[in-house]
Structures are given as structure tokens and as C-alpha cells.
Design goal:
Radius of gyration: 24 Å
Oligomer: single chain
Order of helices and strands: HHHHHHHHH
Strand content: under 5%
Structural class: mainly alpha
Number of helices: 9
Largest sheet: none
């Protein structure tokens, strides 16, 4: 029996053999962009993984931009808001992440200036350090606990100078147990 006939029904892996369809991919991308914010690099990566060539990718991305589905200024503002409000990221960490996505420096700075309050960032740093310091055991060397707190704050994206300044402030606020 011949398994490859004209009335062959596609099997699970067969779709990978067909060439990618730009219009179909564009419509799917537009639908997703209407529901959430994306940047150009997000779609370049997705389209590339789907097997489109560079010309097709740039055409689809340009169309998404021209039709308003992608707006990198809007994306940067949403990214800053979400990462600061829900993930506790700092301006520094957000800036690095947006730069990796190819967002321009001026858009990053404008979004950060609009969306991040320095006092909120310092309150977040205080909370981060307080939490990390409170996890230290009574019999643990205080230097180990402090080092763990510093690493936790650095992982959130706080600058070393801010971390050490806050630790000095917190130490000055804490009464001695002696």
C-alpha cells in the first residue's frame, strides 16, 4: 500500500514541510498585538523561528508598525510599568532588558522617567534588604547574612552604591542589642 497518495491527510509533523505563509502569520501577529504589547524584536524572533526570510520578516514587522499594532514607545511604557509594579525591577534592570530588545535609549529613558519614582525604588530596596536580612539565622555570621542581602538587591538591579547607602541607613536606624 502506498502511504503517500494525493488524498494524504497531514500528520502531526507535516506542517513543518510547508513553506511559511506570510499573510497568515501577519494576521496571527496582528491579533496577538491587539491583545498585548510587543516590540519589533519580539516579532522578528518569532517570524524567524517560523522560517521566514529576512525580507519577509522586515515587511511584516514594518506593516505591524505602520498599522499601529506595534509601537515601541507604548511598549517601553508598558514594560516599565509592569516590571516595576509587578516584578519589583529597578530602573537599571529594566533599562538593560529593554536595550537587549533593541529599544532606543531615548525611548527607554522617557519611559523610565515617566514610570519610575525614585522614592518608590528606595522603598523597594529597603523592603528587599529587610526581607533578606530577616532570613538570617541567629547563629549565622552577620557578614554572610549581609552578603546574601546584597546579592538579593543586586539581582533586582539596584546599584551597589544605593545598596551600601541603604544598608548604612538601616544599620543606623537599628538600636544595638548590647
Amino acid at each position: 500500500m502506498d502511504t503517500l497518495t494525493d488524498n494524504h491527510t497531514p500528520q502531526h509533523g507535516d506542517h513543518a514541510k510547508r513553506p511559511p505563509q506570510p499573510e497568515r502569520a501577519y494576521v496571527a501577529a496582528a491579533r496577538r498585538c491587539a491583545a498585548a504589547e510587543y516590540c519589533c524584536s519580539d516579532w522578528r524572533t518569532r517570524f524567524s523561528r517560523q522560517g521566514f526570510d529576512a525580507t519577509q520578516i522586515e515587511t511584516m514587522v514594518a506593516r505591524l508598525v505602520s498599522e499601529g499594532y506595534i509601537n515601541e514607545e507604548r511598549y517601553a511604557r508598558a514594560f516599565v510599568h509592569d516590571k516595576a509594579a509587578y516584578n519589583g525591577w529597578t530602573a537599571r534592570k529594566i533599562s538593560i532588558a529593554l536595550a537587549r530588545k533593541g529599544i532606543s535609549t531615548h525611548l527607554i529613558q522617557a519611559a523610565i522617567d515617566e514610570g519610575i519614582d525614585n522614592q518608590q525604588q528606595m522603598a523597594l530596596l529597603h523592603t528587599c534588604l529587610r526581607r533578606a536580612l530577616s532570613k538570617g539565622r541567629a547563629d549565622e555570621d552577620p557578614r554572610k547574612t549581609t552578603a546574601r542581602a546584597i546579592r538579593a538587591a543586586a539581582a533586582k538591579g539596584f546599584a551597589p552604591a544605593d545598596i551600601y547607602r541603604m544598608l548604612r541607613t538601616m544599620t543606623a536606624e537599628t538600636p544595638d542589642d548590647d
